[in-house]
Design a protein that fits this description.
Elements: E1 19-21, E2 24-26, E3 33-37, H1 45-57, E4 62-66, H2 70-82, E5 87-91, H3 95-103, E6 108-111, H4 119-133, E7 136-142, H5 148-154, H6 159-175, E8 181-186, H7 190-203, E9 209-211, H8 218-233, E10 240-242, H9 249-262, E11 271-274, H10 285-295, E12 304-308, H11 314-320, E13 323-328, E14 331-336, E15 339-345, H12 349-364
Parallel strand pairs: 3-4, 3-10, 4-5, 5-6, 6-7, 7-8, 9-10, 11-12, 12-13
Antiparallel strand pairs: 1-2, 13-14, 14-15
Helix pairs in contact: 2-3, 3-4, 5-6, 6-7, 7-8, 8-9, 10-12
The structure holds iron/sulfur cluster.
Domain IspG TIM-barrel: 16-256
Keywords: 4Fe-4S, Iron, Iron-sulfur, Isoprene biosynthesis, Metal-binding, Oxidoreductase
Protein name: 4-hydroxy-3-methylbut-2-en-1-yl diphosphate synthase (flavodoxin)
Length: 367
């Protein structure tokens, strides 16, 4: 068949340098990756690996694990060896765990210079160990743990303060001729966060890890992250993303994936084009859309399925999609590639759509 057209993105990707994170790449022309963080105790190797397997299945590209104690550090070699996706150790306070994580075979280490005392003294050693092991780093600046000196200077974590901190920490590594790092400047306020990343992207070609920190429970956090990431990604800023939700990490992966798909930064899979319903609807659109979504969950081909409540926009949207239904008078007109293939009673709409979707998906190469 015809090759699929290259999907349009809003803006060209900003040029950043490419760094290696284990078996994957971040920055440059590497696809924008989705990250999350495990919520298990890292020392509990089996539970952590089990969660990583679930995250991998959900489409997570890179996973980060916390390492607050020696027991957690001791678990890193087994986790790094058995994880299907690159593992990043997340280190605060204790530089000794940075070295432990590098020795453990982690793909990368996230360091937060803001809460490592006398960080400047440790940079040379960290840079050498990381370089020798082929491990990359993330300089993770966070509003909640801004370097006290900058807190004093700016009074609060302003975009300027976050960027100054990041650029200073980057320069320390660069002085040691170490360049394999990405940077994040997270804040819980999307406005501050957007300004910080925009500013930072003007200052260097570091790959950027986007995050709205402490974004909140699922609904609020999803909106905050989608808004902030959307604003930046639409300008070509951002090389890897982490959605932070007070919800299970698999939800973070789903949201992150959906954000990238919405901007054509990752191939779209199943897409339900359903109408919001209105006073004209002649069918329960919410129920229909939910049932079709549930019936087609996990589909890996880019199938657009339109679910429309009436005949106003119904046939038009249904025609644009691979498959669709426009409802009216207790019946559903089923469209495939613009053609009405049959009209079924309302009670048969869901099963007919699912049957047809499966058939088309098989033709498209769904395993
Ligand atoms: Fe309303 Fe029909 Fe549009 Fe749905 S398709 S929102 S029911 S006019």
């Amino acid at each position: 068949g015809m090759p699929a057209p290259v999907p349009q993105t809003v803006a060209p990707r900003r040029k950043t340098r490419k760094i290696k994170v284990g078996s994957t790449w971040v920055g440059g022309d590497a696809p924008i990756s989705v990250q999350t963080m495990t919520t298990t105790k890292t020392a509990d190797i089996n539970s952590t690996l089990q969660q990583i397997a679930e995250l991998t299945a959900a489409g997570c590209d890179i996973v980060r694990v916390a390492c607050p104690t020696q027991d957690d550090a001791d678990a890193l070699p087994a986790i790094a060896a058995k994880s299907q996706i690159p593992v990043i150790a997340d280190i605060h306070f204790q530089p000794k765990y940075v070295f432990a994580a590098i020795d453990a075979g982690c793909a990368a280490v996230r360091v937060n210079p803001g809460n490592i005392k006398k960080f400047d003294d440790k940079v040379g050693e960290i840079a050498k160990a990381a370089k020798d092991a082929g491990v990359s780093l993330r300089i993770g600046v966070n509003a909640g743990s801004l370097d006290p000196r900058l807190y004093e200077k700016y009074g609060k974590p302003t975009p300027e303060a976050l960027v100054e901190s990041a650029v200073w920490e980057a320069s320390l590594f660069e002085e040691h001729d170490f360049h394999d790092f990405k940077i994040s400047v997270k804040h819980n306020d999307p406005v501050v966060m957007i300004q910080a990343y925009e500013m930072l992207s003007e200052r260097g070609d570091w790959p950027l890890h986007l995050g709205v920190t402490e974004a909140g429970p699922a609904f609020q956090g999803t909106i905050k992250s989608a808004t902030a990431f959307g604003a930046l990604l639409a300008k070509g800023i951002g090389d890897t993303i982490r959605v932070s939700l007070s919800a299970p990490p698999v939800e973070e992966v789903k949201v992150g994936t959906q954000i990238l798909q919405s901007l054509n930064l990752r191939p779209r899979k199943l897409e339900i084009v359903s109408c919001p319903s209105c006073g004209r609807a002649q069918v329960d659109v919410y129920k229909l859309a939910d049932e079709v979504t549930a019936g087609l969950e996990g589909m890996t081909v880019p199938l657009r399925v339109a679910v429309m409540g009436c005949v106003v926009n119904g046939p038009g949207e249904a025609r644009e999609a691979d498959l669709g239904v426009a409802s009216g008078n207790g019946k559903g007109q089923i469209f495939v590639k613009g053609e009405v293939i049959k009209t079924v009673p309302e009670s048969k709409i869901v099963e007919t759509l699912i049957e047809e979707a499966m058939r088309i998906a098989e033709e498209m190469g769904e395993p």
